[in-house]
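Now for a sample.
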Amino acid sequence: MDAIDWLLLTYKVPPEPSGRRVAIWRRLKGLGAVYLQSGACLLPKTDDHVRRLKIVENDVSQMGGEAVLMHTIAFDAAQRQKVLDRFMQDRNEQYSELLGKCSGFERELDKEISIGKLTYAELEEEDADLRKLVRWFEKIHRLDFYGAPLAQEARKALETCKARLDDYARRVFDAHDENRDDAAQQLGPCDEDHAQKRIQHVRS
């Protein structure tokens, strides 16, 4: 494997207020950085990461702290693999959490189907939950620089969730079609027209 270029940021900020240290840590973790130890983290060397880490370096200085940004590579293949493993471990932890949420999503659909809760309101809620899961996956995937093992499993779990939601949607549509047909048989022409308009309003 060819050498991989990384950016190494080491920094130290004043202990008080502690919120500053937490803010810096969150920003760096939000970029996908891995920590080798407290105040020392790595990111793949890209123009975007250089720019963002230079901003962090400046912000640390503005806080009265110290920061050094360096370009580095691993000493040998074994050290390089240790760093890659750290990146993939961090992403796997996030993918694992997402997988748990996907399982919870499926259980929620199973529950609604078992109790016959086939409503448009519930469908909209489940659709919103699925979109949140998709956005979460996309966020993790953007920071998955080296292809964590659980990435594919997480992608498949989302596909399953989408298929399950499609099935639930069909059940909702069928249930409302049946209710509409039953109601139409019991209503006169004017009442039936009014019921049709109400159903169309719910679907829109």
Notes: The radius of gyration is 26 Å.
